[in-house]
Every structure is written in C-alpha cells, then in structure tokens.
Amino acid sequence: MSGYGSRQVAAVALKMALTQSREEENELKTRFFEQGIKTAAVDCGGEFISSVKKFIERAVVASKRESVIRETHSEEGAVAGAAREAINQISMKAVGFNVGGKIGIARYQDHVSVAVFFGIGLLHLDEVAVGLGHRAIS
Fold first, then answer.
1. What pLDDT digit, counting tens, does each position of 55-68 carry?
2. Domains of the chain
3. Name one GO molecular function term (predicted).
C-alpha cells in the first residue's frame, strides 16, 4: 500500500505501544507487515532516570531483532534518536518516579517512528504519559 507518511507511521508505532498482550502485538505486527510496515514492541519499566539508557537500548535491540532496521550506524542511530525524543517528551512527568509500559516501533520505507506509552507513579497513584519521535532513514 502506498501513501504512508510520517503521521501514519507514527500512528502505527503508537498502536504497537498500546498493545496489552503478546498475542495482540503479533496480530498487529502481521496485519501491518501485510501493508508493508515493519513493527516491533518491547515492554519496559524501572526508575525513570536510571532506566533511560536501558529503554533506548531496548528499542534499538527490538528493532534489529524484528528486522525493522538493519545493523548499521545510521539506522540504529535513527531509532535511538527517535526513542530519545519520545522519552524526552515524558521526562517532566517521570523524573523521580517509576515508570512501566511499552515502546512501539514502526517503519515504512524511510520513515521510522518510536512511541512510548508509560504509566508513571507510585503504588496505585499512576499518571499516564505518551511520547513520540520520528526520524527519516535514507
């Protein structure tokens, strides 16, 4: 299918981040693959400040594992940059708290997007935050 741009790829990444189970993840992954969109998702959690590096690394590793990107500096850097941007967007809410949720990654041709969907907080007093980053890969 043609006509996918940065907005549509970002929406797919967000849908992947919102999945609640591996089964739902795999179902969406198959559906999007049939449309030419490669996807990945990874669960993440921990104390925000000390976990940022781990979250970015997990996004890159998941992207390579699911063949969303190749193992090149430019493609790994694009995912790392988009993940950092997405995480940065939630940082004001998350600093000093534990976070838990999912990172979704989507790629169509030269568009790659990373979305984070995290619960932030303590015990049952959670806040919810979403972040989104995009990069172009040539």
1. 999 999 999 999 99
2. 6-136 (3.40.1510.10)
3. RNA binding
Pairwise CA distance, residues 61 & 43, whole Å? 12
| Cα 122 to Cα 5: distance, rounded to the nearest angstrom | 38
Which residue in 72, 135, 126 sits closest to 99, CA to CA? 126
Q: What are phi and psi of 71, to 5 degrees?
A: -85, 70
Residue 82 is encoded by which pair of tokens?
A: 């988009």
* DSSP secondary structure of 57-100: HHHHHHHHHTTSS-SSHHHHHHHHHHHHHHHHHHHHHHTTSEEE
Put simply, whether the predicted model's pTM sits higher than 0.90 gets the answer yes
Reduced to 3 states, what is the DSSP secondary structure of residue 114? strand
Cα 62 from chain centroid?
9
Q: How far is 3 from 108, CA to CA, in rounded Å?
A: 10
